[in-house]
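FAQ: What does the model actually see?

It sees only this:
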Amino acid sequence: MAAQSLRFSLSLFSPTPITKQLQPTRITPKPYLHISKPIKYAPIRSEITAPSTTPLVSNGALVLKPGVGELELGPVIEIDRVVESDLKENGFRGTRKTKIVCTIGPATCGFDELEALAIGGMNVARLNMCHGTHEWHKSVIEKIRRLNVEKGFGVSIMMDTQGSEVHMGDLAGGASSAKVEDGDVWTFTVRSYESELPERTVNVNYDGFAEDVYIGDELIVDGGMARFEVIQKIGPDVKCICTDPGLLLPRANLTFWRDGRLVQERNAMLPTISAKDWLDIDFGLSEGVDFIAVSFVKSAEVINHLKKYLASHPHDSGTYVISKIENVDSLKNLDTIIKASDGVMVARGDLGAQIPLEQVPSVQKKIVEMCRELNKPVIVASQLLESMIEYPIPTRAEVADVTEAIKQQADALMLSGESAMGQYPFKALSVLRSISLRIEKWWREENSHRPRKLPVATFTSPNIVTNELCTAAASMANKLGADALFVYTKSGYMASLLSQCRPDCPIFAFTPSLSARRRMNLQWGLVPFCLNFPEDDDNILDKTFAFLKARGMIKPGDKIISVSDKLQSIQVVNVPRE
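And it is asked to produce this:
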C-alpha cells in the first residue's frame, strides 16, 4: 500500500499550528559507562526481509539485494549501529543531536579501545598530527575503517595539523608527560642535542626564541597547563622558574606575556601551514580523511589557498577544511575565516592563553552564533572534562560548561587529552553523552512553547528556494510534532540547511555519496544513511519506509516530513501499515 501524503509544491508558508502537543519521549539516562574490558558486538546477522528483497550480510553490514523494479540500495548501506540502537531504545525525540569528537592517543589507539569509543557514541575520531608518526596514524585509520566495515559503525576521521606557532619539542627520554612543581627551574633551548636531552630541558621550535624573550617575561605552556617566569638567558638557553605547577606534554604550545600583554611579534613571520603540515596534509588525503583541521588560522587567504590545493589533488574526495580559532589574529578576521571554511573549531585552550580568561565564554558564544547563521558546523573543544584525565568523575563546573555549549546548540563537542591519554577515556565519553541527552531533552521541553528563531535567507542568495523550502519543512516539523524529517540529498547541502534550523525531531539524511555521509557526522541532528536512489524513481519514499520498518527504526503511523534536492516540494506522510 503506497504511503498517503500531502505534497506542497514550492508552498513555503507553514500551516496553522496544531494545538495538540506530543508528550516528549522519556529518556532513561545510563550510568557512566563502565568497561572492565572493551565491549564486543558480533557482526550484524539479520533475518529480516523487506518487500521483494533478499537480505544478505557482507562484512558485517546489511546488504539488500533488490528485486525487479525495486530501489537500488547500493552495495553497502551505512547505518551506524549505535544511532540505530538509540532510535530503537529512546525513540525519535530521544536521539542525541550533539555530535562527539574523540582525540585518539596512546590510551585509545587499539582496535578494542576504538570499538569501545564507537559503541560509546564517538561520531568523529581526531588524529593530532603534533604526535605520532605517519605509520602510527595510518594504523589507527586502518582500524577505524575496519570497524566501520566489519562492525557496522560509521565513524568519520579528522586530521588536525600541528601548525607553526611556537611550541615545545619532545620530552627527554620520549616521556608522554612531565610534572613540574612550584620553584622548579627548567631550560628552554633552541640548541640541537646529538644525544638525549639533559634533565629538565626542552627544545623550542622557533630559532629566534632566545633573542625575542626578555627576563621577567611569563611563559604559558599549553594554554595554562603550567606557567614559568624567565630568569636567565645564556646563549641559546633560556632558564625559567615554575610559578604555577602543572603538566608538560610533548609539543605543547607556548605563549609569552610581557607587562600583562601578549607578545605576538615572534609569530608574525611564521606561516600558518608549515612544511611539516603540507606533508601531513598529503598523507591525510592519501588515507582519505574526511576533515582537515588547520591550526592557528590567521586569515581567510590561508583557507582559500588550502581548498584550491585540495581541489587539485588526485586523492581528494571533498575533504572539509575546519578552521581552528585559537589566536588573536583569527578573532580579528573571524567573519571572513568562517565564510571561507567548511567548519570551525573553538580551541579554547590556546585561545584562553591569548585573550583574558573572562572573555573566553563570550567569544565562544559569538563564534557559535556566527557559525549557526552562516550554516557552518562548529565544534567546541579543549578542557571540556579536563579533570577526567586523572579522576573518574568530572567537576560540577565542567558539567556546567558542557551544558552551556549544548544550550548554545553547537554541532559537536570534542574530547582531547581525556580520550587520548587520560586514565578514564570511556567514562569521559559516557559522561559527555549522558549530559548531551539530558540537556537536549530539558532544553527542548523548556523551549517547546517559545517562538523558534529560524534562518532567514536573503533574496540575493543563489539557493534561496532551497533555503526557504528547508526552513518551511523544519517549521512544519515542529508545529505538527513530526517524528522525523527525511531529506534525499546528493551533496549533503540540503541536509545541512535542515540541521541549521535545529528542529525538535531527528533528520534522516539519505545520500549516495560515502564521503558526504561521513561529513554529515559532524552536523547537529543528522542521522546519515548511504544509499543510491535513481533520478526517476517516484516511489523512493515507500521503498525507504519498507527498509526502515524492516530494521525496526520506524513504525506504522509515524509522521514523516520529506524533502529532496530533486523534488522542490514538501511531503507530509504517515508511515503506512503495509
